[in-house]
Structures
1.
Amino acid sequence: MSDFKVEFTLKQHTPIIHFQHEQEGATLRATELKAKLDAYLIKKMVSDNSKAAFAKFQANPIWRSWLIGSDQAKNPALDYKIKIQDLDAQPIKGSTALITRDDIGSWKKSGKGLSVEIFSFHPKLLQEIELAIHPFFACNNFGKRQSKGWGSFFPNTREDQFEQLLMSSKLPVYKYSSNISSQPDDRFYEKVVEIWRLLKSGKNFNNDYRKSLVFKYAASKGFRWDKRLIKKDIFKLIDAGKLRHNLMGNKSPIDSSKTGNECDTDNEDGYVGWDENPNFQGEYRFVRALLGLPELYEFQASGGFIHQVSFSNAEVERYKSPVTFKVFGRNLYAIAEPMPSDVFNQTFSASIKSKAKSDGGNVGPFEMPSNLKTPSSQEFNLEEFLDEYFPCVNMIRIN
């Protein structure tokens, strides 16, 4: 490091899904990297991950001088510049289906790495940046769907210390018990999706159906499964004539779950039927939303249609997953991040529309009959849930 510059090379471990993928040279964006690094540095230096971190940082006169605007700074932007260059003139390109059949991610991966230069007139700030670079990249991904392992980078130095640096975050860290496939470059995503589906939404592929592990957790805490209420509401709208297409399978939902072997979700002895189970008194909770609230949930319907259910709340627009998957070489890790307090005890309204898989027109949207409320912080503990159920999908805690 010179007095005014920090330089290093990033190795790219997974492709980045870039919104300007068609442009030559499009890679990790300096604006995204700087915003995340600013937030990381400020929280690290004041030892506070809350929204109060910036005010504490501003209260220190030396640190305040490192902000753009110094004493007049209103935003948590530190006074340095980043330049990024892809060293690979012909990066690998591809596309992958993401959340829905219409959601295709176009990605790039550099085979030679990225040259990164950070410049500032504040030598002490550069020292802090240099100290933070390795632990920062160990815990962060970039681009679209970054929580699912896309956009994983790490400096080409201290690679033998990656796991130690990851655990230095003091966040719960889990590691997949086997190696993942390294080829082709998007194959890692299949494993991440499989793990996350088993954990959050359940798996239904080639007649292999398994209910989600968070369903098991919800029942053990005494609340009913949100997916059950959604399906009940869909059938109410079908009976009322608003929706024309039945759900595929047309199965009665399970109202509760036995709480024996925590990994066993297949052999349930819960109540099956559309009426409430009189022996299970729990209220419905929107438990899946605490693992990330997407734009919509999809339900396969007859006649070539898909029922799409979306949720709205004035205070919570979108909520990303609190678990970030990190790929390093052929190793897969998961990092559990603190959950913001404003996602608990929130009530969501829902609407539904039917979308034709082909050009057959749409039906709706219609308001759903019921609202759903997320659990309180006393009803749902992320670390407790992961410690108990991540081993069911071969993710083992390492710290």
2.
Amino acid sequence: MSEGDRRNLRREFPVLKLFCDWAVHINIEWNREAEPLLREFDGAVESAKAGNGIPFSFLQFLSLSHFRDEFARFLHVNGLPSRLVEDGDAWDLFLNLYSAVVSDCPITYTKAQIAFKLISKLTLTKDVPEGASYAFVRSLLGEEPHSVWMNWRIELMDGTVENWPFYN
């Protein structure tokens, strides 16, 4: 594949590129594809703090549906098998393995790298936080066990920490 082809794929599949980079690099602060994600996160925190809840479009992102959709489109465009993204069990297995890799070397962004309004630090982990955040997610999803657990740990500029956990 030529350098020009790779550049076009980067523009056409920015979310997929971000998640691919995440799996192979300890630090991707140089990755400009991460900036829209982080801005969306800051906006979601701002919305929640204002009492407006978390926007549904952002909840879709938390579930990694954008990653799955873009991955499916990439496989289709390149004539590759797509069972991984079409079969729910296969996707859950992949996502569980993927999240284990990225949680081993969590990516952390700070205000020095991107000018957040409210967030000073953001990390994705496999930690299971205790308390209200966990109970909130369980109340949304019911008692059915889910195969993949991830947690966004958000440190706010005022020093407080929020956990936004989710299952898939």
